[in-house]
Design goal:
5-stranded antiparallel β-sheet; 2 helices; 2 domains; Jelly Rolls; alpha+beta
Length: 164
């Protein structure tokens, strides 16, 4: 190439500048887009598993942590033969003296169990979020996840979750 081909003000000169600017702007846009992409914590982070206590009908399953949300990744419920579904997951700001008995304000996350008695029901594979996020508390009391199990129907099980 000679100097005349890319002389200042030539068409080739301006075309080269336009291509370089387009590439730079495209790269900058890609970097900003990557930072704004949403993700599923259950698909990205390792899960923690907690057993569902069957001796006590109402229990705190997952202790809330200040400024962290809870994502339920999977629920596994084993039922007694002849029983109806009977596991309710809820959340709320819980008083330490009476865990889960005063879950206010709170909400029900879901009622789990199998339509077929005497079976284990695996709800969600754990590769994505089943329910959540449970809101993060900015102050105390923190938000906990509780189980309300019908002890006549739930024989055991576990809940898989991520806390971020």
């Amino acid at each position: 190439m000679n100097e005349k081909q890319f002389k200042s003000g030539s068409v080739r000169h301006w075309a080269l500048i336009a291509i370089m600017c387009s590439l730079a702007l495209g790269y900058i846009g890609f970097v900003f887009a990557q930072s704004a992409v949403t993700y599923d914590p259950c698909a990205v982070y390792p899960h923690t598993s907690v057993n569902i206590p069957v001796a006590t009908p109402t229990q705190k399953l997952i202790a809330g942590v200040l400024n962290k949300q809870i994502y339920i990744c999977g629920v596994h419920v084993a039922q007694f033969a002849g029983a109806t579904p009977g596991l309710t997951l809820s959340y709320g700001e819980v008083a330490a003296a009476t865990p889960c008995a005063t879950a206010t304000p709170g909400a029900t996350l879901g009622i789990y169990g199998s339509g077929t008695a005497g079976t284990t029901n695996n709800i969600a594979s754990g590769t994505g979020t089943l329910v959540g996020p449970v809101p993060a508390a900015a102050g105390t009391p923190v938000v906990d996840v509780c189980s309300l199990a019908n002890t006549a129907s739930v024989a055991g099980g576990s809940v898989d979750y991520v806390q971020r």
